[in-house]
Amino acid sequence: VVTNNHVIQDADEISVILGDDTRLEAKLIGRDAKTDLAVLKVEPHSKIAPVKFGDSDALRVGDWVLAIGNPFGFGGTVTAGIISARGRDINAGPYDDFLQSDASINRGNSGGPMFDLDGEVIGINTAIFSPSGGSVGIGFAIPSNIAQGVIQQLIEHGEVRRGWLGVRIQTVTDEIADALGLKHAEGALVAGVIPGGPAEKAKIKDGDVITEFDGKEVTQMRRLPRLVADTQVGKTVPIKVWRDGRQLTLTVEVGVLEEEPEEKTASATPGSPPAVEGEAVASLGLSVAPIDQRARERFELDENARGVVVTSVDPSGPSSEQGVRVGDRIVEMGQEPVSTPAQVAAKIKTAQAAGRKVILLLVDGEGGMRFVAIKLGQG
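Predicted structure:
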């Protein structure tokens, strides 16, 4: 088992060098770009003793480990260290859950095993953090419990079939938790439901906060994609959501994740687009306008665009602090749709009358749908 490491190009070009410098031709069985893992098959000239996978979930911070690899071409190098942290997200992919170790890992260690003191593989070396290019004591390994599932699917199917829920999610901030009446900022906030997907069939809605999936708590947003991906396709599981101030339990049949096609970029409208004057909303620090033909031309909106369009943003206002930009559309306020500046003003007035200090907006922009919690200023 080796990491892709961007070097496997063709199955006919792959070879494996054993510890005694024996070179064997290898066949690529399958690879998975999302976890940077690949499986090779070799026909050894003599019997090779396999190593065993250990339980990476049983590791504790401070446990000793050994890393083996070929750093800078020096074959069979062994380095020692401890587990420095677990569950690291290094933005390498959607399912990051790395083990961090201070065992010396350098270029060439990728794909090498990381052993515990029982001689079992508890990780596969995959990446380092290094301003200098050499080891500075921050290395990362794919946990064995994640790798085993990927490896088994590659052996059986030549590819990895992951579970799919069909939602776009975002982090629940303290402000969003306050606006939704949650006691703690945890779970995964549903910012969009894919039409025809498993979530839509399960009656999951925009604004729901997923707090539990198949009996496992969703303490952080990034935990949900891993839980769903590791679930067997076609399995029906319970899912708990927070909606309208109460907890609901739904059931969903997990679908299969397909590769997303590239989206086409909309072409610009020729000529100078007309100006759009918006109505100021002082409490939010922006101006909005209804989505009419003039706004569609000015901001290149399609016929399905909903809500009100943001025409200006006060750089020092609360909306600017939350990343709201000119051209974004406010689709909902307080989880109810809005389509005119008058409705926006009415929603703010209602929230202020109820003593709310934060209002939740569903905003559609370049990055897709997202919820934004805005602290209400003086309107």
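Summary: Residues 1-12, 261-271 have pLDDT under 50 and may be disordered.
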